[in-house]
Amino acid sequence: MVAPPIIRRVNSQSIDLSHFDAAIVDLDGTMVDTLGDFVVALNLMLDDLALPAVDAARVETMVGKGSEHLIQSVLRHVGAADALYERAWERYQHHYLAINGQHSEVYEGVAKGLAALQERGLRLACLTNKPTAFALPLLATKGLDGYFEQVFGGDAFERKKPDPLPLLKTCEALGTVPARTLMVGDSSNDAKAARAAGCPVVLVSYGYNHGEPVRGVDADGFVDSLLELGAQDDLPSSASLSL
Ligand SMILES: O=C(O)COP(=O)(O)O
Ligand SMILES: [Mg+2]
After folding, report:
1. Which CATH architecture has domain 35-99?
2. Is 44 exposed, middle or buried (CB count within 10 Å of its CB: 0-12, 13-18, 19+)?
3. Which of 18, 157, 190, 230 is the most core-located residue (most Cβ within 10 A)?
4. Contact 72 CB / ligand 1 (< 6 Å)
């Protein structure tokens, strides 16, 4: 007889932050709405290469798997040859560093949510697929750098999310075990990496999920803001996070 499928318990139980020693927080789409920066830097790059511009709606579906993937996807989208990649990467890096943070906004509830998680005893690391050289100045410009003991970009380890390696390495750096380290992200990339690493995972409802509805992703819970996650015990039970 075929065994019945295991039904994950979702929307049934409030998450208890005392189960966690740390949280690993994603950057783009989770803490900062960086779509504007991506679009501006990419279009300056395309202009330098005499290629047509891309629009924000298209870029949104390509974000989250690191800059290399983003540039390759954009070049393919505008019908450019793969051979242009090296020059495109050099131009993109130049422009991104010059405009980093200028067309981006911190999402509502992020600073308060991070502070609330810390007050509840969780240590924090930021883990993004963005290059570390982009992530560090962005966090500093947005006043978010002080919350994190560790910041790792997409070039910090041999492989990026959705591979579990960056999460396992971040747990190692924090000195925490994956089962007691909560991943907080915005996409299936974060959720897949967390599942494979053995970290529980909560996704925000507002970020970039490769153009797909985020609630279709296999995650342990969804929140509308980081403040909702950090201050959930203060909310009415109907608004509590499910796990
Ligand atoms: O691909 C990116 O640059 C963004 O990555 P993140 O969502 O992991 O921060
Ligand atoms: Mg993200």
Report:
1. Orthogonal Bundle (1.10)
2. middle
3. 190
4. no
